[in-house]
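Re: [ENG-882] Designed sequences occasionally contain unexpected residues at chain ends

Forwarding the minimal case from QA. Structure tokens:
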């Protein structure tokens, strides 16, 4: 199956680490139960061409924190993007996107 949805790639932006840090600081205030908030994906690799979307991984102590985090992230402008895996795979992964500052969780 072929799609015609082009992917935008841009040169590395040295502002991405600072943008992540700003977002991380806010997420740690909103989600104090988070064990870690990490910058992942191509924008986290200095010098790499990337989609201009900061990918962030948030680790919680257990599955029970996912719904609470969802309730906190929705009013902040993050939109649920579904499960990262199909419904047959047991996973705590849930994807969110906030267009305001091109962030994916």
């Amino acid at each position: 199956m072929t799609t015609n949805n082009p992917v935008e790639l841009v040169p590395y932006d040295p502002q991405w680490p600072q943008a992540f840090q700003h977002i991380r600081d806010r997420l740690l205030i909103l989600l104090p139960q988070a064990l870690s908030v990490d910058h992942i994906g191509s924008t986290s690799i200095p010098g790499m061409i990337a989609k201009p979307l900061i990918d962030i991984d948030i680790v919680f102590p257990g599955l029970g924190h996912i719904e609470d985090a969802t309730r906190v992230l929705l009013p902040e402008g993050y939109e649920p993007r579904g499960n990262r895996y199909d419904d047959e795979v047991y996973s705590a992964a849930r994807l969110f996107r906030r267009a305001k500052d091109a962030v994916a969780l």
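QA comment: On inspection the terminal residues look reasonable. Residues 16-104 form a domain with the Beta Polymerase; domain 2 fold (CATH 3.30.460.10). Proposing we downgrade this to a documentation issue.
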